[in-house]
Amino acid sequence: MVETTSQLKTIIRRFRTELEKMGIHVDRVMLYGSQASQTAQDGSDIDLIIISPDFAPYSQRERLEMLGVAAARILESVQANGFTPQEIEKRQLMPFWDQILREQAIAV
Fold first, then answer.
1. Distance of alpha carbon 5 from alpha carbon 8, whole angstroms
2. Third-level CATH fold of 5-107
3. What is the pLDDT of residues 6-32, one digit of tens each?
4. What is the residue extent of each domain of the chain?
């Protein structure tokens, strides 16, 4: 569990930096789940949606692999999913992700 908002921001910044090193230039980071609703318990992970045009040539599986590598490199429990701005704008998302973005996700 992340103890403070400052710690959470630091972890997200480190995660974003790792993605940049991997050639993924991040447009936006959205936080959802227990960290966003401030109901996190011990062992809660950090749920993120990463929006980047650099995800365009990659399958969902490849995106998850890259995001998992970035999380492993910072040694934090980050669960992230990646989408392109076009997928968001054209609503080319599964209903679950569309609902998360509309109702729960907050920009960080």
1. 5
2. GMP Synthetase; Chain A, domain 3 (3.30.300)
3. 889 999 999 999 999 999 999 999 999
4. 5-107
